[in-house]
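Researcher: First entry.
Model:
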Amino acid sequence: MDYLNAFWVGGLICALVQILMERTKMMPGRIMVLLVCGGAVLGAIGIYGPFQEFAGAGASVPLLGFGNVLWKGVKDAVNENGFMGIFMGGFTASAVGISAAMIFGYIASLIFKPKMRK
């Protein structure tokens, strides 16, 4: 039954984002920032954990999940290092994901030979 929750929650999030893109003048970059910040805010107020437990993979839609990972990293680093944790927590928590995206993006650019648009 959990896979059904993941299916409809992830689909609902994607549908809401699509509606937001079509019905507003917001550019995709701003919507992406809104999702990352939303994930961080939901994590900060304690809603994201139960939401992810209910929805499973559907709640870890990349941008919401990334915002929550940043929040957790900052929270843990602040508990360990004080004020300086604000600056290093997000980088520490998300380094693996960001590194993988950069490496695979570079490999894809070598394989597919992208061309610059004029």
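Researcher: Second entry.
Model:
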Amino acid sequence: MLLGVPLGMAVAINRFPARRLVVAAVNTGMGVPPVVVGLVVALFLWRSGPLGSLGLMYTNTGMVVAQVFIATPIIAGLSLAALQQLDPGFRLQILSLGAGRFRLFLLLLREIKVPLLAAVMAAFGGIISEVGAVNMVGGNIRGETQVLTTGIMEYVGMGEFSNAIALGVVLIILSFSTNYAMTIIQQRGRRD
């Protein structure tokens, strides 16, 4: 959210020559296969890569970096789309009443809070279900960088389906409870 929302906001409210190219890049980023993101991040974090000296390959931090690159375009693209649906006069009205850029940012966020939470849920779904990038960057090291999805893959590969199913149930419960909490926040004050 810290990267995607400001990026979506900047593209939505500013006009600049390469704007359509940036929007197309953000939209493309929403659909890039996570394994490709993992490959790019791994190339940067590999010992001989530009950021190899940081020692982030096969670490939890490296996995978080990969997941940020997966989630950011999703949040940026969906928040950009939500902001583009607002009446352009609304932004002008806020500015004419003397609001600065930060106040404008906060008021626009308030207007798109429902779709913004949907964007967060979509990004969360993208990273919690992800296997390729975390496996590539984290290495699936048991007790260190193994996550639920890579654990499920490992158990299936070993034919231990009961353990894979147990991890799957945990993953579904975690996903549902997190999305349910965000849905309560998103739908607060709305009638069903």
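Model: Note on the second entry: The mean pLDDT is 92.
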